# Entry
Amino acid sequence: MRIVFLGTGAAGAPPGRAESCLLVETARARVLLDCGSGCSARLEALSITPCDIDAIVVTHLHADHYAGIFGLAVRASAHACSRFPLLIVHHSILEEAKSEFQRLLPRSWRDRVKVAGIGDDEVYVVGDVMIRFVPVEHSISCWGVILESNKSSMIYTSDTRPCPTQLQHYLAKADLVVHEATLPSNLSRAAIETGHSTVTEAVSCRKFMREDAILALTHLTVESERELRAWRTLPRHVLVAFDHTFYSL
Ligand SMILES: [Zn+2]
Ligand SMILES: [Zn+2]
# Structure
């Protein structure tokens, strides 16, 4: 399983970072985890077109996690993709998701969008990738994503307070955890109020993980990135993701 960070910025991303978007590639599938603004340009830079994407998993209905679907659809038209948008996977509780995505898409794509809602404890399979949602702690309903393929596993927390209880069982098993670090450490009250994590809080999730697993920080703002740049060293097995960072499991 290869993970490519395509968008590592929060809403109003710092220069050089697109909004939330991760590409997961396996032998038999290409899946996007969230699709914020700028995602399609990052894909095209890798010579990957929307035609090559099998599914887009959307964790919650904040625009910085799905607004890029519009640009992806426009590029799909340019490439004359016959099967895009193949599939947008979301949590089944989000009944408004389909109409929200349709509203966002260019008119010519609206009737072609396929949406799949999956519930807690359900597993959705795309090629050789198993996808599962676990609820996290954000300002609106939001889910972390557990991905498993060929005995490797990763967690994408999406937007959340640090290491939510429901995820801890999975944190102990995962090879890679992608955790948001939206706010600098001096804004812990704002993090509570907005359902996000500070840099220090995100790094603290390392204690729930296996010794050899990697914690990657993403969903950065100008302020949290500035703090991370000032750190002389990061804790062992913690990395700061940049757009186009990739990691193989
Ligand atoms: Zn966000
Ligand atoms: Zn959010």
Summary: The domain at 2-244 is CATH 3.60.15.10 (Metallo-beta-lactamase; Chain A). The chain has one domain: 2-244.
